[in-house]
Amino acid sequence: MHKRFLQYLSQQKGFSPHTILAYEQDLEQWSSYLLSTYEMNSLQAKTEQMRSWLVCLVEDYNLAASSIARKISSLRSFYKFARKHLPDLSDPTSGIRAPKIGKRLPTVVSSEELRILLDELEFTNDFNGKRDHLILEVFYQTGMRRAELVGLEWKDLIIDQHAIRVFGKRSKERWIPLSSSLFAELLAFCESYENEVGRKDGPIFIQKNGRKLDPKIVYEIVNHYLSFTHSEKRSPHVLRHSFATHMLDKGADLQSIKELLGHSSLAATQVYTHTSIERIKSVYNQAHPRSHKSKEL
Q1: Choosing from 71, 131, 240, 246, which is the catalytic residue?
Q2: Does pLDDT of 229 surpass 70?
Q3: pLDDT for 36-45, tens place per residue?
Q4: Active site annotation includes 240
Q5: Domains observed in the chain
Q6: Does pTM surpass 0.85?
Q7: pLDDT score for 24
Q8: Which of 66, 195, 234, 239 could be stapled to 226 by a disulfide with Cβ–Cβ 3.0 to 4.6 Å?
Q9: How far is 113 from 5, CA to CA, in rounded Å?
Q10: 263 labelled catalytic
Q11: Is residue 169 annotated as part of the catalytic site, yes or no?
Q12: Higher pLDDT, 224 or 64
């Protein structure tokens, strides 16, 4: 049943390989616990086994509320699928409530730090140096996800529109406009690309052997360069958060940012309004002469 469920997520729901892997790992962890603790499989489990497992995750593994909530969601989806084929099957997630998750504001690098990183830091003048700089620029100027960047091909560059075609979650297509500077850098990189691999088609971001860049390498590249900033988190998503927050700070409307990010609902984009409000409050508290005045008279 597990295999059929994962195939369903891939073929009918169109989930990404990364998301499917997360579901698979959650199912394997749940099944392993049931086998070792109760000598049963996932189709035999009841709510009491589910509650016991959740306690184990908290007490023995010290798992965060967000991770536990995700596991519950994964298993809830699995049992919903399984019950369509086995109507009499017990759903051990029934009556289970996910733990409350505190809102975490996105990590953002300041626009000045990113300006210094992109304009003043010296990148090597070889193929890898040009590629790495372009990766950072694309992340910060478009807000696209890591998987979207890795999947970019030269045919996705819309020359006459100064835009690039991106395929997001569930293969949803969107166009993102490119600034004149980023468009010019892409065209210049195309020449380096052709000199390196002898052609100018296929994936934009490649390794020296011509193969598509692995997502792990993309993460390592971004992590390395963000170490030159004060950001504690140094992932590609930090640049996506920075893109959205800086756009909002400069007056972009939330609906436009939603479309650029490829969010399916405005609710996912609204987290950036909280970030901007916190920044505004911080500036106010530091700058306004009356902000430190004691309330005691």
Answers
A1: 240
A2: yes
A3: 999 999 999 9
A4: yes
A5: 2-85 (1.10.150), 111-285 (1.10.443.10)
A6: no
A7: 95
A8: 234
A9: 45
A10: yes
A11: yes
A12: 224
Decide if 237 is catalytic.
Answer: yes
pLDDT digits (tens, 9 = 90+) for 171-197: 789 999 999 999 999 999 998 888 888
Q: Please confirm, yes or no, whether 272 is among the known catalytic residues.
A: yes
Name the catalytic one among 76, 237, 274, 279: 237
pLDDT, mean over the chain: 87
